[in-house]
Amino acid sequence: MNIENAQVQMRKGILEFCIMHIISRGEVYASDMLDELTSAKIMVVEGTLYPLLTRLKNSGLLDYKWVESSSGPPRKYYILTDMGKQFLEEMQKTWIELSDSVHTIVLKTQDLGAKNEQQPTN
């Protein structure tokens, strides 16, 4: 199995959650989302982001508004709808449960590894 592919799949799994968190802070422009995701090392490209934003919009979780720009064409700023806010709250609960569960499993594995290292070999 290719580790890079596994890493990409893990990131894709949390991308929607991260995007909705970014938007939950207030109106946000897509390129600002890309910058934040890249800074957080959740690599994403426009070809991934825009279809996801469209899907979230079509699901009623996001909306957008056009804002005139003094330096070019109008910009589309995304916001969460009330339904999107509720959806994000549920996703947050799931994330906490999942994160705690994974952490528990990883700790047990690390503890077992530490015990095995301490045992003398014959």
Automatic annotation (TrEMBL):
* Top-rank taxon: Bacteria
Under InterPro entries, the record lists: Metal_resp_DNA-bind_regulator, Tscrpt_reg_PadR_N, WH-like_DNA-bd_sf, WH_DNA-bd_sf
Q: What Pfam family is a match, any one?
A: PadR
Domain Transcription regulator PadR N-terminal, by residue range, is 19-90
Gene3D superfamilies attached to this UniProt entry = Winged helix-like DNA-binding domain superfamily/Winged helix DNA-binding domain (1.10.10.10)
Q: What is this protein called?
A: PadR family transcriptional regulator
